[in-house]
Specification:
Number of helices: 26
CATH superfamily of the largest domain: Dsl1p vesicle tethering complex, Tip20p subunit, domain D
Strand content: under 5%
CATH topology of the largest domain: Methane Monooxygenase Hydroxylase, Chain G, domain 1
Organism: Sarcophilus harrisii (Tasmanian devil)
Helix content: over 70%
Shape: rod-shaped
Radius of gyration: 68 Å
Pfam families: EXOC6_Sec15_N (PF20651), Sec15_C (PF04091)
Distance between the termini: 192 Å
Oligomer: single chain
Structural class: mainly alpha
Strand order of the largest sheet: 1-2
Keywords: Exocytosis, Transport
Number of strands: 2
Order of helices and strands: HHHHHHHHHHHHHEHHEHHHHHHHHHHH
Protein name: Exocyst complex component
CATH architecture of the largest domain: Up-down Bundle
Largest sheet: 2 strands, antiparallel
InterPro entries: EXOC6/Sec15, EXOC6/Sec15_C, EXOC6/Sec15_C_dom1, EXOC6_Sec15_N, EXOC6PINT-1/Sec15/Tip20_C_dom2
Length: 808
């Protein structure tokens, strides 16, 4: 039962499998058949049995169907047999037709092959055309590159290379000619770099040669601009002043300054046009080279090379010529080259980006400025001509103004100008020293005579002289000073003008310029003029008359100093209320010169007195005096009288001092003559003769040779001699010894040592005289008493002298 149940269960399963086999595609039967073997044992046998039964069923159905359609099949076979005959006939016809068609198609085939070949050629041509159309732009661009290279359009050539590499070459990279072109491009780039660098070298050489012209042009432009600004400022000032006049109801006439301004403008219009730096130098090589190197990514190499070469050129430009200091053209050429160099650098700075920087130009300028200052300081020290130094200063000012217009700092140059100003003043002082010496050599040291009003006005116009008394005198008359005074005054003003020329354009205030002028003038007065005056005074051939005239001259020059101060104030436009820290030292200068001249007068007067005294020929052994004064002394007194008459134009104190000094020196000389150690003995007759000479001196002193002395002041110069001689003439030794040391002593001015020396000489003279007169005089009682008296006086005088020495 169990097996029967399993068989019944397997039957539906086998039917399902058979249905799947019938309905499923043959390729997918495998899984279905595999399931047969996966079932229970003997399932395969049962499936086969079921399959056979199914096949038999289908055969039966096929047989039924065939039986149903058999008649139709027979009819179809019969018709098919009939058709076979017709088919054979058709086959023969088709074969014949095919043969005919084949024969006829051979020509068509041949033409078709030609057409195919032509079509292939056409396709190839089309392909070639397409490729050529792709290659032609490359070839055209490469040809354009060659043309640009030949035309030296290197920057455009580099652009073309870039287009070729980025756009055109990728399209035709498979062709060999493209590879050749690609290989040539680096070489072309190197060629362009070399050519552009060669152009840059030519440019650097060109600007080196043209630096002088560029600098001259730039300095000329700066100078013209400065003149234009000055003229414009003057016009504005004149217009302002004209407005003020019109406001006050006055219409002034056109001034000379305005006329000169218009004239300047007309001249400026007629001048040829000044070329700019772009007109003188072609900067395209440096632009082109910069663009090329920038495009090639090698800008740093180019910048380094350019800066290195320009620094070398800067060192060459800054190297002066050995004889530059000899002419102003040497300095002008030096400045022009430097200005040309930095004008080019400034232009490069502003028209290029990065080739030169502000920091680079500042560094280069600072280096150059230090070198320039050192060169100018060294070469200007050789200049001895003030005109050359002044021209150098003007060149430095134009040089500084030009570079300042290009924003280069130039303060150190103006500081250098102050050093050169001191040197300029030194050269001026040397020049004016020669001028003063020439004036003094040509001066006749006599008052200036004027014969008429015209000559008088000429002198007044040259020198500020005011004397109402002289104006009242009729012609001809004389100025008290000599011709050198107005000449010196004029030359001092010329010196101030010359010094002012250097102070112009130094960008200093009027107060500073005024102070500089005063200091320069002080140096002229205190050093140069004072030295010339001192040398003049010390010259051996200058006599007393000339010395007196020098004193008069210095007095008038001293009075003229205030006019010089006013002159400086006027030319510097400084108000009178401004307090100056610097004043003219002319007063002290002329006072010193006058004191030197006065001292020289005293010295020469004493020397003249010594010359007369040396002519003295006393007979110191004479027994009796001549009864009149010595001849040398009378000549000396006459000389002193005439000399002191010349002193009437001198200040009173000078004449009095000279007279007193002369009398004191004469008194001292006479005293020294008596006390001369070589003079061993003096007779009383010689003492009496000497007394007569001293009396003449006293008479001269009492005659008031120079007015202004009070009482017997001048006679006191001979008081020592007078008391000494009175002591010997009166032989009043008892009074002298008794009153010695008393304030009211009659012989207060007689020194015991002096009295002792002269007494010993007189004693020896008396002894000698007695011996000559009488050999037995020594045995006379009076003589013996006198000898004893003298010996007693000598002992007392020696005790006084010893007492004085011990007290001392």
């Amino acid at each position: 039962m169990a097996e029967g149940g399993e068989g019944l269960a397997a039957v539906p399963e086998h039917e399902r499998i058979l249905q799947e086999i019938e309905s499923t595609d043959t390729a997918c039967v495998g899984p279905t058949l595999r399931s047969v073997y996966d079932d229970q044992p003997n399932a395969h046998q049962k499936f086969m049995e079921k399959l056979d039964a199914c096949i038999r069923n289908h055969d039966k159905e096929i047989e039924k169907m065939c039986n149903f359609h058999h008649q139709g099949f027979v009819d179809a076979i019969t018709e098919l047999l009939k058709v076979r005959t017709d088919a054979e006939k058709l086959k023969v016809q088709v074969t014949d037709t095919n043969c005919k068609l084949q024969d006829a198609g051979k020509e068509v085939i041949a033409q078709t092959e030609d057409i195919i070949r032509c079509r292939i050629q056409q396709r190839n041509i089309t392909t070639v055309i397409e490729k050529l159309q792709c290659c032609l732009p490359v070839l055209e661009m490469y040809s354009k590159l060659k043309e640009q290279m030949n035309a030296k359009r290197y920057y455009a050539a580099l652009k073309t290379m870039e287009q070729l590499e980025n756009i055109y070459f990728p399209r035709v990279s498979q062709y060999r000619f493209c590879q050749i072109m690609i290989e040539n491009l680096p070489k072309l780039r190197e060629d362009i770099k070399e050519i552009s660098m060669s152009d840059l070298k030519d440019f650097l050489e060109s600007i080196r040669k043209h630096s002088n012209k560029i600098g001259e042009t730039a300095m000329k432009q700066a100078q013209q601009q400065k003149i234009f600004n000055i003229v414009l400022q003057k016009q504005n000032n004149i217009n302002m002043s004209r407005t003020m006049y019109i406001t006050n109801g006055k219409i002034p006439e056109e001034s000379n300054e305005v006329k000169s301004t218009y004239a300047f403008e007309e001249e400026d219009e007629n001048e040829e046009e000044v070329l700019s730096v772009q007109d003188l130098v072609d900067f395209s090589p440096v632009y082109r080279c910069l663009h090329i190197y920038s495009f090639l990514g090698d800008e740093e190499t180019f910048e380094n090379y350019y800066r290195k070469q320009r620094k070398k050129q800067a060192r060459l430009v800054l190297q002066p010529q050995p004889n530059m200091h000899e002419t102003v053209d040497g300095y002008r050429r030096y400045f022009s080259q430097i200005v040309g160099f930095f004008v080019v650098e400034d232009h490069i700075l502003h028209v290029t980006q990065g080739l030169v920087t502000k920091a680079y130009t500042d560094e280069l300028w600072n280096m150059a400025l230090s070198k320039i200052i050192a060169v100018l300081r060294a070469h200007s020290s050789y200049c001895t001509d003030p005109d050359l130094v002044l021209e150098l200063k003007n060149l430095i000012v134009v040089f500084a103004d030009t570079l300042q217009g290009y924003s280069f700092p130039v303060n150190r140059l103006f500081d250098l100008l102050f050093e050169i100003r001191d040197q300029y003043n030194e050269t001026l002082l040397k020049k004016w020293a020669g001028v003063f010496r020439e004036i003094f050599e040509e001066d006749n040291c006599s008052p200036i005579p004027v014969a008429n009003e015209e000559e008088y006005k000429i002198i007044i116009s040259k020198f500020p002289f005011q004397d109402p008394d002289l104006e009242k005198h009729s012609f001809p008359k004389k100025f008290p000073m000599s011709q050198s005074v107005p000449h010196i005054y004029i030359q001092v003003k010329e010196f101030i003008y010359a010094s002012l020329k250097f102070s112009e354009s130094l960008h200093r205030s009027s107060t500073e310029i005024d102070d500089m002028l005063r200091k320069s003038t002080n140096l002229l007065l205190t050093r140069t003029l004072n030295s010339c005056l001192q040398n003049l005074i010390k010259k051996p051939h200058i006599g007393l008359t000339e010395l007196v005239q020098i004193i008069i001259n210095t007095t008038h020059l001293e009075q003229a100093c205030k006019y010089l101060e006013d002159f400086i104030t006027n030319i510097t436009n400084i108000s009178q209320e401004t307090v100056h820290t610097t004043r003219l030292y002319g007063l002290s200068t002329f006072k010193d010169a006058r004191h030197s001249a006065e001292g020289e007068i005293y010295t020469k007067l004493n020397q003249k007195i010594d010359e007369f005294v040396q002519l003295a020929d006393y007979d110191w052994t004479m027994s009796e005096p001549d009864g009149r004064a010595s001849g040398y002394l009378m000549d000396l007194i006459n000389f002193l009288r005439s000399t002191f008459q010349v002193f009437t134009h001198l200040p009173g104190k000078v004449a009095q001092t000279a007279c007193m000094s002369a009398c004191q020196h004469l008194s001292t000389s006479l005293m020294q003559m008596l006390l001369d150690s070589e003079l061993k003995q003096i007779s009383m007759g010689a003492v009496q003769q000497f007394n007569l000479d001293v009396i003449q001196c006293e008479l001269f002193a009492s005659s008031e040779p120079v007015p202004g002395f009070q009482g017997d002041t001048l006679q006191l110069a001979f008081i020592d001699l007078r008391q000494l001689l009175d002591l010997f003439m009166v032989w009043d030794w008892s009074t002298y010894l008794a009153d010695y040391g008393q304030p009211a002593s009659k012989y207060l001015r007689v020194n015991p040592n002096t009295a002792l020396t002269l007494l010993e000489k007189v004693h020896r003279g008396m002894k000698d005289t007695n011996k000559k007169n009488n050999i037995f005089a020594q045995f006379r009682k009076n003589d013996r008493d006198k000898q004893k008296l003298i010996e007693t006086v000598v002992r007392q005088l020696r005790s006084l002298v010893n007492g004085m020495s011990q007290h001392t």
